[in-house]
Amino acid sequence: MGKINEQTQWEHEVYQVARTDKIEGGRTGIANLQAQQLGNRTQWLKTMLESVEYIRARTFFKTSDDPDGTITGLAATPSGQVFQVAQGVDSITSFTLYVNDSGAAKPIANPAGMAAIQQISQNVTDVRSNVTEGDAQKTARGETIIGGLADENGRSTLFMAENGAVYAGGVRMGNERVAAEAGLLWALADDTPEATPWLKFYDDGWVDPLWLENPLPPVAVRNLTTVGPYGSTGNAFDPVNLAIREKTLKPVNDFNDQIAAWSGAFLFDGDYARGRAAADWMLRWARFNALTGSNSAVGIADYDRHWRAVNIGLTYWKLDKVTPLGWRPALLRWLNLLGDAVSERMELYGNNNHKTWAACALLSLWNATGRQAFYDKAAAQFLTDLGHINDNGTINVELLRGSKALHYHHFTFGPLVMMCEIAQLHGEDWYALDGGRIHLLAETVIHGITDPAWFRTLSGAGTQDISEIGHGWGGMPFYVRRFPDVVAGRMPETADHYVDTWMGGDCNKLSTLWVK
After folding, report:
1. Residues 6+ apart with CB under 8 A from 448
2. pLDDT tens, 220-278?
């Protein structure tokens, strides 16, 4: 007759035979399943009860003749078996467990005793009972403190606020997701009203130790949304639109202007810390593919992107000797994505200065990445732009701007010069292309700025408003230094407005470095 082989294991449930079950005997048959499970439980309970009796029989106590209890414990315990010695109510351990190791008592465990539990209980306090009413119950951020651990002097060393934030040694271990920064899980921050983070943890595994000696970059903007600066006439700045632009473009401008300044501090003054900080900012924006998104319709957001892309590419070049090698793959991936976005939207532009600026951005990004497609497209557009220059140095499409015609001739001249200068870095003379046609535009721009009435007569475009000439000046110091005989003193070599953060920052110094 067969029998059930019981196992020492606890069965969490006993099977209830269903009406549809096929009743079979044998070791795995359903008829014996319940008996097997109940037998296993019985065997497990029997073992537990015997263990309790065993431990009770193997529990020993300290005496004057046996100070640590091991003499009697070893005498009553076979080699290889365990015994325990009670430690007393005032001890932080309840028992010390020993194994008889060939006649030697070898300690193997010390379970916590009542004294340890009481000590923890005394130190786990309601922090609010140790402070005065009012602001003292709150952190510097205004969070209400609900409890924590105190040291022997009653000073809170670890405490929790009602919103779940934990403070350890005065450092805030924030646990809220920061909605404005995609992927940020939590951060370690200081205990100030601003809760400035110093260590960030992201959902992709990135741990970000922050550069405390420099401010943090603005939150990266992937899809830029803004408005144009002009009103309905198309030639006069609209105060409302300018206010909107100032707000919507602030993170982009802050980022762009700062990396231009810091990269210049490194390149011109050897400020390694500022250069490293600029590269750090670039890397942070690279992680979130900043400025690579596009809206459904071509517009001002695309233009604002390619204007800054010129500087971003030049900044990477300026930081070549300070950017860590480990950062470069992520940066180059971003610059390629940025160039792809500029290139794709450029196809939808009209043949005006926007294509010129987009081409300048592509050449700047080629200078950074070495991507041949960027070079080819920029070079083709440069030749197209030269073909738009009339024999008198004017550009037909820019003459249509009326009182802003000279302004936009200058706005086209700047990026064309910068493209020539980037090409010069690689031994190519773009100034000489198409019979040096760029010099016709240069003469019209320089002569026109020094004598707007002359330009009005030349172009028939009416009285010129050049009060708003701004970005684009960055090309002028290069041209002045490279062709002093042509300029003939009509433009200064150095000027405050030659600092152009769309074209590399301080172009006074950059032109001195490039033009030999």
Report:
1. 406, 409, 410, 454, 455, 458, 464
2. 999 999 988 887 766 778 889 989 999 999 999 999 999 999 999 999 999 888 898 89
